[in-house]
Specification:
By secondary structure, this protein is an alpha/beta fold. The chain contains six helices and five strands, in the order αβαβαβαββαα. The protein starts with a helix and ends with a helix.
Length: about 300
């Protein structure tokens, strides 16, 4: 059985750890409010961007644009896992990486080659450790991404697709549902699906107050060619913001659970420490009584 001094040291150590986890929980909670506000403001913009692009696509008719090109045979797939730069967030990073690796196995099973464009240090380090083919990686902005970060990603990914270096691009990220729930989401980024545009166009037509007639200046084909790259940037920015909010929610929950576990452990050790102290006192009393009996005898 551990001594009273050993148990005291363990209680003191765990108490200090709990102070750290509580502080990290408070920091994550404050950052979560900001991140949640950003993604809630971003979602309507992204939805309207898709509806606008769908309307212009219908007006343009059948057009051949690089970002809309559906390749007859998909030989190379690019996977873009969106992870965090730091850990201590429960399964936040692990579930994105696990889903990305599952997609890789599916692609390889279909005879396709897989390349990687990663964001966040956690994904980059895992992919390097596994010696996978990482074309480019970005770090340093997982907690507070800016639109220029999404533009850098979009430019590199779109360039690889247009140049024929990849035939399909998939983004994997945690979508923010609540502080307790983050949903791993897989989005087909490129080529931009005509079916997706059609569905968005039908949803816009069914919307109340919809006005179907527009006069386009310049021509719809030219407007669509300008909108497509912006749409890719918008979708990547949305993924980064969703991931940022999810990261703070996951970290806040993980630190709260860690603080709770530390409290339970402290209670258990305190009980053990009290029992050890009682045992020591009892032993001392027995020794005093035995000594007194020996002297009186």
């Amino acid at each position: 059985m551990a001594s009273t001094q050993d148990l005291k040291r363990r209680v003191r150590s765990i108490t200090n750890t709990r102070k750290v986890t509580k502080a990290m929980e408070l920091v994550a909670s404050a950052r979560l409010r900001r991140s949640q506000s950003r993604i809630e403001s971003m979602r309507p913009y992204a939805d309207r961007m898709l509806e606008l692009m769908a309307g212009v696509s219908q007006a343009a008719g059948a057009v051949r644009l690089p970002l809309l090109e559906q390749r007859e045979s998909v030989r190379k797939v690019a996977i873009v896992p969106v992870s965090a730069d730091r850990g201590l967030a429960g399964g936040f990073n692990a579930q994105v990486i696990r889903r990305s690796l599952a997609l890789q196995r599916e692609a390889v099973g279909a005879g396709q080659e897989v390349v990687w464009f990663s964001t966040g240090r956690k994904a980059a380090s895992t992919l390097r450790f596994r010696r996978l083919n990482v074309i480019q990686s970005w770090t340093g902005f997982s907690e507070r991404p800016a639109y220029r970060d999404a533009q850098a990603l979009a430019h590199a990914i779109s360039e690889a697709f247009v140049n024929g270096e990849v035939d399909r691009v998939v983004v994997v990220y945690n979508a923010f549902v609540s502080a307790l729930t983050q949903k791993v989401t897989v989005r087909e980024l490129l080529p931009i699906s005509q079916e997706l545009l059609k569905q968005a166009g039908e949803a816009e037509e069914d919307a109340p107050g919809h006005t179907p007639d527009f006069i386009y200046e310049p021509e719809p084909q030219e407007i669509l060619a300008r909108l497509l790259p912006v749409y890719v940037e918008t979708e990547l920015y949305r993924a980064l913001l969703e991931s940022a909010a999810s990261e703070q929610g996951a970290r806040m929950t993980a630190m709260r659970n860690a603080s709770k576990a530390a409290g339970e452990l402290i209670d258990s050790l305190t009980l053990a420490m009290n029992r050890a102290r009682q045992a020591e006192i009892t032993q001392e009393i027995l020794e005093v009584v035995a000594g007194a009996d020996a002297l009186s005898g």
